[in-house]
Amino acid sequence: xxxxxxxxxxxxxxxxxxxxxxxxxxxxxxxxxxxxxxxxxxxxxxxxxxxxxxxxxxxxxxxxxxxxxxxxxxxxxxxxxxxxxxxxxxxxxxxxxxxxxxxxxxxxxxxxxxxxxxxxxxxxxxxxxxxxxxxxxxxxxxxxxxxxxxxxxxxxxxxxxxxxxxxxxxxxxxxxxxxxxxx
Length: 183
Hints:
mainly alpha
């Protein structure tokens, strides 16, 4: 089943709305105004969709549109009666650029090899260690919560997590060094 342009656009917007809203709210003090600017950005993106370059990240393109909307918003507020705390256009652009840099997906074989080694090393951990790592990093639980659920002390969980991280580090480095020797 082939999706329509409207359906694909809706999926992209749902995916990127939280990040775009965070960017705009970082620039604009009033939450209602930020929400309006996000909607204006979505409308402009729909109208300019034919200009989107598929080789570029959609989130960056969307933030570029939002950046101009935010700058226009500040200009309008400066000329009107309403006073807002405004950021200079250069600051808005800097925030957008930094977000683009931080959100750029890692590229290259090094990352792929690291993640492959991490998966292998995670599987090699003893079950109790792997469970603590999974709860801490995948489920984002703190040591106290993990300790309560597993019937241990928080200090014991912290120590187990410390040992597991050290074992993962050593295992990953070992696997990466072996791959480098094989090349």
